[in-house]
Backbone:
């Protein structure tokens, strides 16, 4: 059984803008289906529960159980294989958004053929297939340099204005055209600001913060230092000069799209050179008290956490904290940026709100519905 659910975006339109937008996430909690099962049954069940990121979910579950049992850290070959598998899956997820969803949002022909070709190659990458991983990783890096970010590789200096940024973006094929269209929609400074960007923490840090298997309420609406936070490509690349420029100039949605392209490059590099010393580990685990363990995995959409407590051979507690629950927290990134802005017409409002959702990259299908504002 696969648990999918849907993200329903309900927005009010008052003829001038969107005073209120709400996100309703109907995905049922998967962790409760693992409690009471044997460890082997639970581990076998995990990848079948998730339509997306199945490799990352399975490997994170295995790492959390190993930490709970006090097993030795995997050797370099096992860690290399895990990172390749996660990187291949993350690259697939980014390519889906970048070559299909983002262009379609702006009426640009999606790159279906190119996506299908790369998707097939990535699906064939196995953990021990170093040659295949290097080959497809190189193709993705070429795609980024020659098409997606072509305008930023051909000029040495940084763009001096947003107009120049948009002009360079449009030299980069369908994704660049979508980025240019986003910028030309106008700046948008969220009236209530942006959510905190989640820092890159290791498994031991998360174990110290959580101090035990988190409860269902935390998993549904996780917080960092008591506040909602955003995870994903923007958080990982918040220090990139061009990403920061877009945020500072009032284009957080465009910043997320640009950060996703940069992030795709990183995953392609991990395919070619897993466990690189200049990049943080993709998957880590740490003990979480007696009989308990935690694993932290970076995915295309952001940080994924599994925490488990075992009693003998039985799963006594299990928790999964997924990226979608961070970014669509009731008071989080979407809640802050989805409400209180103006648009010239309903079509523009729909496009803007859909772009925000795409930028926050949920791991479930989403639908945007508009209704007349209650107090127009």
Residues:
């Amino acid at each position: 059984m696969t648990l999918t659910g849907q993200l329903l975006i309900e927005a009010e339109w008052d003829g001038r803008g969107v005073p209120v937008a709400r996100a309703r996430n109907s995905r049922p909690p998967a962790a409760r289906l693992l409690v009471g099962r044997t460890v082997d049954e639970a581990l076998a069940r995990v990848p079948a529960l998730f339509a997306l990121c199945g490799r990352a979910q399975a490997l994170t579950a295995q790492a959390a159980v190993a930490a709970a049992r006090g097993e030795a850290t995997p050797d370099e070959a096992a860690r290399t294989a895990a990172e390749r598998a996660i990187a291949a899956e993350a690259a697939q997820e980014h390519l889906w958004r970048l070559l299909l969803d983002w262009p379609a949002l702006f009426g640009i022909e999606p790159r279906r053929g190119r996506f299908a070709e790369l998707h097939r190659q990535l699906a064939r990458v196995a953990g021990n297939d170093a040659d295949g991983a290097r080959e497809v990783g190189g193709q993705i890096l070429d795609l980024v340099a020659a098409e997606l970010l072509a305008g930023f590789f051909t000029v040495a200096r940084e763009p001096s204005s947003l107009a120049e940024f948009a002009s360079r973006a449009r030299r980069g094929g369908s994704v660049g055209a979508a980025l240019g269209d986003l910028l030309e929609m106008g700046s948008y400074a969220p009236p209530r600001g942006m959510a905190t960007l989640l820092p890159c923490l290791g498994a031991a840090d998360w174990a110290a913060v959580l101090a035990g298997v988190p409860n269902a309420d935390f998993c549904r609406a996780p917080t960092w230092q008591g506040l909602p936070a955003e995870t994903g490509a923007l958080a990982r690349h918040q220090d990139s000069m061009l990403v920061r420029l877009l945020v500072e100039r009032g284009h957080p949605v465009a910043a997320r799209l640009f950060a996703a392209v940069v992030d795709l490059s990183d995953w392609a590099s991990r395919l070619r050179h897993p466990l690189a010393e200049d990049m943080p580990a993709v998957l880590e685990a740490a003990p979480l008290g007696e009989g308990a363990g935690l694993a932290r995995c970076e995915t295309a959409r952001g940080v994924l956490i599994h925490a488990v407590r075992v009693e003998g051979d039985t799963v006594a507690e299990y928790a999964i904290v997924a990226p979608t629950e961070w970014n669509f927290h009731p008071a989080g990134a979407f809640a802050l940026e989805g409400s209180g802005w103006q648009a010239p017409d309903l079509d523009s409002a729909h496009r803007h709100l859909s772009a925000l959702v795409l930028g926050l990259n949920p791991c479930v299908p989403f639908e945007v519905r508009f209704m007349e504002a209650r107090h127009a």
About this structure: The chain has 16 helices and eleven strands.
